Structure formats: structure tokens, C-alpha cells
């Protein structure tokens, strides 16, 4: 709600300026340059406006106690104090409010209920995906927010709704994704929440995990298609960073999971080192084999083993090869499908014990354990009772083996903390709005051993630290914890709601009242002079009906010299009165014009509600329009996009457009606008018969509609029977319109060369088709009045007041955005000029005929 906070500051400055009072503007977040709260200058309100406009939120916590120290040095006894609070408790809000109230008249401005910021907690990692948690400080009724997972190029990989119950301050949702997609996520955020607390950066702890493959005997070779490491490495290389190395070398690295093939009993030194590592949070996955059968294992096993093992199948075996049972719900492998061709011919058996059933994660058909696991300190001990190669089973050949290993790797704690003193330099940091940017010179590296305990601050803002190969994420929400509501304002303080309080501008009303009084005074004056007599009123009525020329005989301009006035005709005196009336009319017209100018501010404010004013503006200026959806972020992007396209057209073409108009297709007149941008959301309903008829008339009479489902990055635009998402919403929208068939834009279509030569039509997203009416089967001028796509063009065109892009264009960046600008120019030129570009193809033949 930063915009509302700036408006509130401007309101306070207006009050101070009218009262002729000086202002001190104190922030509660430390400065990025000095790391402390700076003592502000005390300036006139007019001089403070520039400093207030330059304020921006910080991406680290507030320091209200530090702000109190600064306020104490200002000696503000008797001041009017406005505290624009965030509503979140930091442990000092109660004391802060009391101290402020003791300094002067205190006004506390808080967000409206339900408008408080939400915070995104670091997700928890489960085998099937990430679990996103969203916090809010106030339980303000039921609410649903969207959590997005984004890739490094800005593409949205997953968007999941998170619903708060009416009395809940915490809600969560599982982001169930395949491992390949999960590893691409670099950022989670709350859609529409512009705050560093609504962003969680994802590092290797949640993404691609480093996995160690222990090589205990350096001289041994691992044969292709036969060796254990061969199958383990290929099973994990697609989703994990596999590091084959000696056991002591692996333990010296930041590894969360170690896979240990058949080794037999571990040496005393290796056993102690592994024991410490597992208890610290590591996952040790071991595999059976001839050596472990002979040694019957050691203490780093989830269950005690029997000597000798068990052979299945063959003349000397106990029975036929065994198959797997379905995984129990409590197993980490729950939900995995078991291929019918997985067979086990030999296994190592576990000693029966009371807790063996709880430790068994996978079983054979006869109930004997195939995989056992047990907690060991903060880590896990896991044993596959078969070999990692196909010697004892066909499990190593199957996709099930890959999925089981991925589930086990996901149980690890990720990359462990780096206990070294090596500094982790900043790679990118977040600003107060949650946007990534390059770190400035004041951001310092963080020592590896201190990273877990370093809070976000001016010198260590939230962001990514380390190297491109080993990044660590420092998130704001991880250090703050769950937000709590701020203590109530102290007694005697006035409390206002942010955005609800505003001044009423009385100037237009007072000026209008003054003008009305002036008109009344003028009318009384004319009546007292006898100007408005009954005979003259009859003459006036003749003028108005056209029965008498205002300049006919009897007037000053056509009276003949020396001619006497005829009976019952106006005299020179009455002609003077008539001239006076004309002067009064001119005065009244001037006053009305003045009233119109002085009341422009109130008219501009009411223009969106006055259809006559909107019609006049549309008739005097060429304007683009967009259809309001009711979704704040979508409507804001649409308006910013059309305003940005207007700027591009002004700079590059001769087209001069007015401000973009927002319209309701059901109630507003459409014919004023040559192009209407229609963002199609998934909540789009069917058109009413009246609206469909009006839209059809608009299209058939020369209007153009650009439909944009904006979901190319999720599912693309599908207009067939299997359409879903935006495609399904578009079908509902166009179901009542009798349009020509839609076809992909042909290569020779005028849209490809209306101003620029274009081969494709990207927006914020790219890669999908753009559709137009098939005019080969339509009558008329063969101009397509409907353009359909899913590229989110408005977001690509959107600019702020300084002309800076507001949304990333992915994956092509600024080059893709330039193509989006050019597409927008072509659409407007196509709408305004039709097929004149197509006609230019025939120019050579026309000139030849003229020459002949």
C-alpha cells in the first residue's frame, strides 16, 4: 500500500503548508548508507515535498527504538505527530506510541482491515514438492491469495491458491511439481503483494541437491552396466548434482545425502565420521551386497541384519522371484507406481524386532523388508536390502528406482551450513518492493559460518549470496517470524484508516456559488433598469422564434439619419437597452466559460461518472480503451500498458492519442474507441444478449477488439474442444458472437507490415500463436476486426511515469519488449488505416496505368 502511504504524507504536508508550519519527516527503517536512522532536517512543508516523494520502503525491519532517539533530539514538545504505521508488532510499538503521545497530539494511521501486508514464510521441503506458507497479522475474514513459483528467466512455473479461513492467520498450500520443474524455481512470491516480505528466494536447499557417491576403494574400477556407481549416478544425474569421491572428501563438503554401495563393515574412523555427519542432519543411503552379507553390517544401519542373506528362484532357492507390495501411506515412497516387471532374486534379511515394522519403507510380496529406514539424530539411515546394480534385482533397471532415490534425496536438509570463514559475496539483493537488483557498494559479504544467524539489515539486505555455483538465500521472513498485530494506539490518540480520510476540495463549489450570486445580482440589476419589461420580452421571443431579424430597422446600425421612430417601434433608448441585453448575454457567456474553467478540477474528477463528458472527450480525442475486469492487478496493467503504447505512438508516429479509457462493455458506449483491449481472465462469464449485440455491432462497423488471455506462460492459447484456462474463458466470451472463423495470422497479413515489418507478435510472453478473423470467407473490406492471443501485451507495454518498464519480458528481455512495442504500433495503425498498406502493393501497376 505504498501509494496510499505517499498520499497520506502529501495530505499532512498540505495541512502543514496551509498552517505555515515546518515539518520533520522521520523514517523508522535504518538508512542504507549509514545503517542507522538519520536525524531529519526541519523544513517548510513546501520544501519537504521533494524529500517525501523520494522515499521508498526498505527490505529490512524497522527500528522504532532508534527512531525514538532521533525524535528525542528534535525537541518536539507540542507538535502535531502523524504516525503512519504498518500494523505489525516489533516488540516496541506500545512504548513507541506512548512516547509519541507524550510529545504532542498523536494521530495513528493504520491500514484498513484486510489490507495489511501478507508475509511468505520459507517453504518446507517434502518428497512430493514444496509446501508454501503464508502469514498475515490480522484474521480479517476468509481470503485467498496466489503463490507463484518463478524460474530464473521470469517464467511462472506454478501458481497455487492459498486460502485463509475466517479466523486464521496462517495458511499453506502444496506446490506439487516434478523434480525437473521444482529444481527450476528460484523465487516464490505472493502475486500482487509488492513487498520484500512477500518474496522467498530459493537456493540449493530447496532446489537441486548435491549428492555424494562414496568410493571407498580408490583402485577399484566401476564397470559400465555392472557397477553400483554406474546405476546410482545415472538415476540421480538428471535432478541432482552427483559428486563421486572418497568418503573423507565427501564429508569435508557441504553434502546433504551420501549413497554408500556395498561396503561390508565400515572402518572405525569412517564409522565415527559418518555417525557425526548423519546426526547433524545428513541422509545416508546404503545398499546390500556380498560384503554386507558376510559382515552382517555395523551400527550405521536402520535395522540389524541376518548373516547369509536369502536367494529367491532357482533349484536351490526358497521360491520364485519376489515382487513388491504397494507402499504404505506412511512410507516416503507412498504413491509411487510399482512396475510389474520389477523382480527380486536375492536380498539381505533383517533380524526380527518389535520396531522393524515401523522401520520398513518397502516390502516384498511375502512381507520381508526391501528398504528400511530409521531416524539417527537429526538425520536418516536408509538401507536397500538389494544391490544398487541388477545383480540381485531388476529394480536398478526401472524408473521406480529413480523415483525412490529422488524421494530420499529430497529428505535431506539441503546444502549444510558452511563453517568456514570464507566470505559469501552478494550476487543480487531485494529492494523494499521485492524486486531483484544489483547490490550497491554498501552491501558486505557474509562469512559462511555466520550466514544462518545473520539478520537482514542495511549492510546485509535480503538476497542471494555466494557464487553462481553455490548460492545461499537470505530471506526477510526467515528472520522475522510470524507477524503479530501491533498494540493498540495509546489512549487519547486519534486513529484513522489509511486511504479512508481525504480532504474535500471546496474551491469549485464556492466559486460556483459565487457565480450564481453574481448572476442573481445581475438579473436584479437588469430588472430594476426596466430591461426585462413585458414588451421587450415579446420582442425577445420574436427574435428567438426567428420572426424578427435582430438587426432590422429600429436598431442603431440600420437607422437612417434623421428618420423618426415609427409608432410601436423601438426607440434609440430601447436600442441601447437591446445593446445592453446583448452585452449582458456576452457577460453571462463569459462567466459561464469562467465557471467551466474554474470547475475543471471537479469536472475531471466526475468525468468517469458523467457519460456526456466521456462522450465529448472521446469525440474530441482519439483514445484507446480497455475493458475493466474487476481484478485490480489486471486492470492496473491494462491501463499502464495502453498509456505506455500511447507514449510509443507519440514518439514514433504521427498518431496523437488521448489518455486510455477504462470501460464496462455492458454499460458504456463502445463506438467512441477505434481499438479496445480486452484482457480475458479465467473468471470471464458469458456475454448477455444485449452486450453481445452491442459488441457485434461495434466490430461490424469498423471497431477492433484485441482479446488477450495473458496465460501463454502457463498453458498457451488453445481454441479447440480441449481448451482450458484462458481458451475456455474466451470461448464463453465469444460464444454469442457470429464471427468469421479464427485462423493464425498469415505470413502476408497486413498486420505484419502495417508500420513495422514483423515475423512474430510477442508480449510479456512469447511462443504462441496469434489469431485473426479469416477474411477469405467474409464480406467487406477484408479487415480483421478481432485479434486474439495469450501474450499479455499490456504488461509488455506498461510503463511508469518515468517511462520505465513495469513487468519483465520473458524469456527475450528488452529485445522481446521492443517487438511487443512494434506489434502494438502495427495494431493501432491497422485499426486506423485499414488495408492501405496492402493497397500499396498495387502502387507500381497504378503508376504504370497513369503513365500510359
Name the features.
single chain, 852 residues, alpha/beta, 7-stranded mixed beta sheet, 24 helices, 34 strands
What would you say about this model in short?
Helix content is 31%, strand content 19%.
What does this protein structure show overall?
By secondary structure, the protein is of the alpha/beta class. Helices cover 31% and strands 19% of the residues. It contains 24 helices and 34 strands. Helix 1 runs antiparallel to helix 2. Mean pLDDT is 80; it is low at 414-419 and 548-609.
Overall form: globular
Number of strands: 34
Let me know the average pLDDT: 80
Tally the helices: what do you get? Answer: 24
Q: Report the radius of gyration as a whole number of Å.
A: 38 Å
Low-confidence stretches: 414-419, 548-609
Helical fraction equals 25-40%
Distance between the termini: 70 Å
Any chance you could write out the topology, listing elements then pairs?
Elements: H1 2-19, E1 22-24, E2 42-44, H2 45-53, H3 64-74, E3 79-84, H4 93-103, E4 104-110, E5 118-126, E6 129-136, E7 143-150, E8 156-164, E9 170-176, H5 179-182, E10 187-190, E11 199-201, E12 209-214, H6 228-236, E13 240-245, H7 247-251, E14 257-260, H8 268-279, E15 283-287, H9 290-295, E16 310-311, E17 346-347, H10 356-359, E18 360-363, E19 369-376, E20 379-384, H11 399-410, E21 423-424, E22 426-430, E23 436-437, E24 446-447, E25 463-466, E26 471-474, H12 476-480, E27 494-497, H13 507-528, H14 534-545, H15 572-598, H16 600-606, H17 611-620, E28 625-627, H18 632-652, E29 661-663, E30 675-679, H19 689-700, E31 704-708, H20 726-734, E32 742-744, E33 771-773, E34 786-789, H21 793-797, H22 813-833, H23 836-839, H24 843-851
Parallel strand pairs: 3-4, 4-27, 12-13, 12-14, 14-15, 15-20, 28-29, 28-30, 30-31, 31-34
Antiparallel strand pairs: 1-2, 5-6, 6-9, 7-8, 7-10, 10-11, 16-17, 18-19, 19-20, 21-24, 22-23, 22-25, 25-26, 32-33, 33-34
Helix pairs in contact: 1-2, 13-15
Amino acid at each position: 500500500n505504498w501509494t496510499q502511504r505517499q498520499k497520506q504524507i502529501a495530505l499532512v504536508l498540505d495541512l502543514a503548508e496551509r498552517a505555515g508550519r515546518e515539518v520533520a519527516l522521520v523514517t523508522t527503517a535504518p538508512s542504507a548508507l549509514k545503517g542507522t536512522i538519520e536525524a531529519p532536517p526541519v523544513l517548510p512543508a513546501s520544501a519537504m515535498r521533494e524529500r517525501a516523494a523520494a522515499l521508498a520502503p526498505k527490505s529490512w525491519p524497522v527500528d522504532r527504538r532508534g527512531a525514538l532517539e532521533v525524535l528525542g533530539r528534535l525537541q518536539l514538545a507540542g507538535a502535531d505527530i502523524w504516525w503512519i504505521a504498518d500494523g505489525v508488532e516489533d516488540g516496541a510499538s506500545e512504548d513507541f506510541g506512548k512516547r509519541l503521545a507524550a510529545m504532542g497530539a498523536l494521530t495513528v494511521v493504520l491500514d484498513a482491515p484486510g489490507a495489511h501486508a501478507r508475509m511468505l514464510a520459507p517453504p518446507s521441503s517434502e518428497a512430493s514438492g514444496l509446501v508454501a506458507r503464508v502469514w498475515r497479522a490480522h484474521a480479517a475474514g476468509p481470503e485467498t491469495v496466489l503463490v507463484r513459483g518463478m524460474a530464473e528467466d521470469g517464467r511462472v512455473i506454478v501458481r497455487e491458491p492459498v486460502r485463509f479461513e475466517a479466523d486464521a492467520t496462517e495458511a499453506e498450500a502444496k506446490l506439487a511439481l516434478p523434480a525437473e520443474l521444482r529444481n527450476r524455481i528460484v523465487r516464490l512470491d505472493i502475486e500482487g503483494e509488492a513487498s520484500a516480505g512477500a518474496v522467498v528466494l530459493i537456493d540449493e536447499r530447496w532446489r537441486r541437491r548435491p549428492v555424494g557417491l562414496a568410493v571407498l576403494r580408490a583402485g577399484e574400477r566401476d564397470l559400465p552396466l555392472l557397477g553400483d556407481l554406474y546405476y546410482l549416478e545415472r538415476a540421480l544425474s538428471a535432478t541432482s548434482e552427483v559428486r563421486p569421491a572418497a568418503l573423507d572428501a565427501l564429508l569435508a563438503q557441504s553434502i546433504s545425502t551420501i549413497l554408500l554401495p556395498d561396503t561390508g563393515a565400515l572402518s572405525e574412523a569412517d564409522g565415527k565420521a559418518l555417525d557425526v555427519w548423519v546426526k547433524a542432519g545428513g541422509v545416508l543411503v546404503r545398499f546390500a551386497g556380498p560384503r554386507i552379507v558376510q559382515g552382517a553390517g555395523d551400527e550405521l544401519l536402520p535395522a540389524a541384519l541376518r548373516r547369509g542373506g536369502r536367494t529367491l528362484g532357482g533349484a536351490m532357492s526358497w521360491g520364485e522371484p519376489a515382487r513388491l507390495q504397494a507402499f504404505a501411506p506412511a512410507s516416503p515412497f507412498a504413491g509411487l507406481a510399482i512396475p510389474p516387471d520389477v523382480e527380486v532374486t536375492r536380498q539381505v534379511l533383517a533380524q526380527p524386532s518389535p520396531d522393524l515394522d515401523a522401520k520398513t519403507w518397502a516390502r516384498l510380496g511375502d512381507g520381508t523388508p526391501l528398504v528400511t529406514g530409521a531416524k539417527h539424530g537429526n538425520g536418516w539411515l536408509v538401507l536397500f536390502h538389494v544391490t544398487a546394480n541388477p545383480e540381485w534385482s531388476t529394480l536398478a533397471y526401472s524408473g521406480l528406482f529413480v523415483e525412490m532415490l529422488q524421494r530420499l534425496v529430497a529428505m535431506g536438509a539441503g546444502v549444510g551450513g558452511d563453517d568456514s570463514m570464507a566470505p559469501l559475496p552478494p550476487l543480487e539483493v531485494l529492494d523494499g518492493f521485492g524486486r531483484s537488483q544489483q547490490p550497491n557498494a554498501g552491501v558486505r559479504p557474509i562469512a559462511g559460518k555466520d550466514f544462518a544467524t545473520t539478520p537482514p539489515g542495511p549492510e546485509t539486505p535480503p538476497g542471494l549470496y555466494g557464487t553462481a555455483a553455490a548460492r545461499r538465500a537470505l530471506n526477510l521472513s526467515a528472520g522475522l517470524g510470524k507477524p503479530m498485530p501491533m498494540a493498540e494506539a495509546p489512549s487519547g490518540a486519534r486513529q484513522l484508516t489509511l486511504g479512508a480520510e481525504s480532504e474535500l476540495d471546496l474551491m469549485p463549489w464556492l466559486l460556483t456559488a459565487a457565480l450564481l450570486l453574481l448572476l442573481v445580482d445581475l438579473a436584479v440589476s437588469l430588472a430594476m433598469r426596466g430591461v426585462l419589461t413585458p414588451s421587450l420580452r415579446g420582442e425577445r421571443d420574436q427574435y428567438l422564434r426567428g420572426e424578427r431579424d435582430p438587426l432590422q430597422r429600429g436598431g442603431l446600425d440600420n437607422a437612417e439619419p434623421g428618420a423618426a421612430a415609427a409608432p410601436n417601434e423601438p426607440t434609440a433608448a430601447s436600442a441601447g437597452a437591446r445593446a445592453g441585453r446583448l452585452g449582458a448575454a456576452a457577460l453571462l457567456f463569459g462567466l459561464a466559460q469562467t465557471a467551466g474553467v474554474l470547475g475543471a478540477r471537479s469536472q475531471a474528477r466526475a468525468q468517469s461518472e458523467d457519460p456526456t463528458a466521456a462522450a465529448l472527450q472521446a469525440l474530441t480525442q482519439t483514445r484507446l480503451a480497455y475493458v475493466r475486469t474487476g481484478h485490480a492487478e489486471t486492470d492496473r496493467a491494462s491501463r499502464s500498458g495502453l498509456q505506455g503504447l500511447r507514449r510509443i505512438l507519440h514518439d514514433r508516429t504521427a498518431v496523437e492519442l488521448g489518455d486510455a479509457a477504462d470501460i464496462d462493455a455492458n454499460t458504456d458506449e463502445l463506438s467512441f474507441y477505434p481499438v479496445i483491449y480486452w484482457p480475458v481472465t479465467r473468471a470471464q462469464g458469458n456475454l448477455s444478449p444485449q452486450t453481445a449485440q452491442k459488441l457485434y455491432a461495434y466490430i461490424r462497423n469498423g471497431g477492433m477488439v484485441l482479446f488477450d488471455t495473458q496465460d501463454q506462460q502457463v498453458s498457451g492459447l488453445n481454441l479447440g474442444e480441449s481448451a482450458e484456462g484462458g481458451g475456455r474463458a474466451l470461448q464463453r466470451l465469444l460464444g454469442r458472437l457470429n464471427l468469421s472463423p479464427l485462423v493464425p495470422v498469415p505470413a502476408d497479413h497486413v498486420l505484419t507490415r502495417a508500420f513495422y515489418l514483423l515475423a512474430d507478435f510477442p508480449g510479456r510472453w512469447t511462443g504462441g500463436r496469434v489469431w485473426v478473423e479469416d477474411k477469405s470467407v467474409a464480406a467487406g473490406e477484408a479487415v480483421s476486426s478481432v485479434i486474439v492471443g495469450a501474450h499479455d501485451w499490456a504488461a509488455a507495454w506498461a510503463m511508469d511515469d518515468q517511462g520505465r518498464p513495469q513487468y519483465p519480458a520473458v524469456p527475450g528481455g528488452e529485445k522481446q519488449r521492443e517487438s511487443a512495442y512494434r506489434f502494438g504500433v502495427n495494431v493501432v495503425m491497422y485499426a486506423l488505416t485499414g488495408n492501405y498498406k496492402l493497397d500499396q502493393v498495387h502502387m507500381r501497376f497504378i503508376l504504370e496505368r497513369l503513365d500510359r
